Amino acid sequence: MMRGQVVPEEARAWTAGLLLATDYFANARRDAVAKASAAIRGRLHRARQASSEGRGTSR
Amino acid sequence: MVTTPRSRLRTYLFLEAGAVGLGYLVAVLREGAPGSGGAWALAVAGGVAVAVPLWVKSRRELRQEAETRSAEVLAIEADAKLRLVVGDVVTPIAEVVGRVHQTSGKAERESLRGQLKQLVVEAVASLCDGERARAVFFELERGEMRAAAWFGRGDPPTTVFTDDPADRRGQEALLLVRFHDYLLIDDVRAEELPRGAEPRPGLATGRSSAWRCSAATRTWACCRWTPPSPTPSTTPT
Fold first, then answer.
1. Is the ipTM reported for this complex over the cut 0.95?
2. pTM of the model
3. Quick check: A40 and B83 CB within 8 A?
4. Is A9 on the interface with B (CB under 8 A)?
5. Inter-chain residue contact A37 with B96, CB threshold 8 Å
6. Per-residue pLDDT for chain A (59 aa), expressed as one digit of tens each?
7. Alpha carbon distance B129, B124 (integer Å)
8. Backbone phi, then psi, for B56, in 5-degree steps?
9. Which of A25, A27, A43 to probe by mutation at the B interface, max B CB count within 10 Å?
10. Cα–Cα nearest to B81, from A11, A7, A37
């Protein structure tokens, strides 16, 4: 099960004018790159594992 | 910026080259060092014959790895951009749009509309990947467009676009709005500028630190035409 906020606290603070856009976007960009990096590398890792298992079983 | 972890491919290639070189040396020296010039030439030719395929193979593997890494970096950048736009920009702005429509008080609605315009220019300037990007939201009212929200500049924009025959750039800007066109100029120094558009003074000589890229489009906000003009090089102020 997963549950979370659709609009995170930082985004709420930005839309309410409590957080500077420069700070908000710097953090958001950093988080997005970190999440994207983990997601893409995880996918590549799983794809490599699947392909090496496929090679192992095809022998 | 996306960084990739160091690969061990080069280490493996060095180890492989070392092992092959050592094996070749042992094979050559097993029956004693070459005694004549011809024997030395033969040994050197054998060494070259062993080294060439190793060199070709290592080049091919390094190139393949570089291509894989650049594809990985591109995939990460595309994924990060999508997360940023959808999760960190569109979703919070959509929530404010919803609040504008849900709120009943006129004053509060006007306040939220103003907030919305500011959020849009902040998002536009922050997402366009340029250095020192500026964005201005021009609002059309009674045939004139005035800056209603801006980001990336200290002073308020003073440009007013009008339909006055003497205001050529104003007329062109209003035409963009009327026909729902967008205008994108990648480089105001390199491209031929459309009618009404003019770079800031000093830009042609390269002495100005002003912008080089410009984009403008029209958008709807709360049932009125309000064109935002991110990095408006068409509007020297």
1. no
2. 0.69
3. no
4. no
5. no
6. 888 888 889 999 999 999 999 999 999 999 999 999 999 999 988 998 888 887 776 65
7. 9
8. -65, -45
9. A25
10. A37
